[in-house]
């Protein structure tokens, strides 16, 4: 799960997908990273922590790290929260970018529409973070449904 800072959107996506995969009995390794280096080592934004806890998902122990090209070797699927993030990932990886492994998260929910998860960092309000949580949650539900069918 990749966003810009790895403090607002992708920590939520990591926490939510881990939670849903566990509940579905799927043995997945789910992690997150950011394409910017600005917040490396920081915990998730207070409002990401708060809206996650409100839904029973604890992301307080996460620490931000920077996305790197080697992540394409480590993971089977890499979800970008937004189009600018996907572009950054391509810039960072160059020839190591594997298009078949990368996707916009919301294309799991709205196939082919190339929608981006709005970045709540700029608005900075709890309703903004709550709306982002709900959207990411729906996308994660779609992912678990899809792969549970494949592996069943
Ligand atoms: P995120 O939000 O990508 O969802 O973690 C942001 C956090 C920080 C910044 C940008 C986006 N920043 O520019 O510092």
UniProtKB/TrEMBL annotation:
Q: Which domain of life is it from?
A: Bacteria
- Catalytic class of the enzyme: hydrolase
**Gene Ontology MF: a single term:** protein tyrosine phosphatase activity
The record's listing under Pfam families reads: LMWPc (PF01451)
By its UniProt entry, which Gene3D superfamilies does this protein fall under? 3.40.50.2300
Enzyme Commission numbers on file: 3.1.3.48
**Record domain Phosphotyrosine protein phosphatase I: where:** 2-146
PANTHER family xref list? LOW MOLECULAR WEIGHT PHOSPHOTYROSINE PROTEIN PHOSPHATASE, LOW MOLECULAR WEIGHT PROTEIN TYROSINE PHOSPHATASE
Q: Which InterPro entries match?
A: LMW_PTPase, Ptyr_pPase, Ptyr_pPase_sf
UniProt name for this protein: protein-tyrosine-phosphatase
């Amino acid at each position: 799960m990749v966003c810009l800072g790895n403090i607002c959107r992708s920590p939520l996506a990591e926490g939510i997908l881990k939670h849903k995969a566990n509940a579905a009995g799927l043995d997945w390794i789910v992690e997150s990273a950011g394409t910017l280096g600005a917040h490396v080592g920081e915990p998730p934004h207070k409002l990401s922590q708060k809206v996650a806890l409100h839904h029973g998902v604890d992301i307080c122990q996460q620490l931000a790290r920077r996305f790197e090209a080697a992540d394409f070797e480590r993971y089977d699927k890499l979800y970008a929260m937004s189009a600018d993030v996907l572009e950054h990932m391509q810039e960072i990886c160059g020839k190591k970018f594997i298009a078949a492994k990368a996707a916009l998260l919301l294309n799991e929910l709205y196939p082919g529409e190339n929608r981006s998860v709005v970045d709540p960092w700029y608005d900075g309000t709890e309703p903004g973070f709550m709306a982002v949580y709900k959207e990411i949650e729906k996308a994660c539900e779609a992912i678990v449904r899809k792969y549970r069918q494949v592996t069943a």
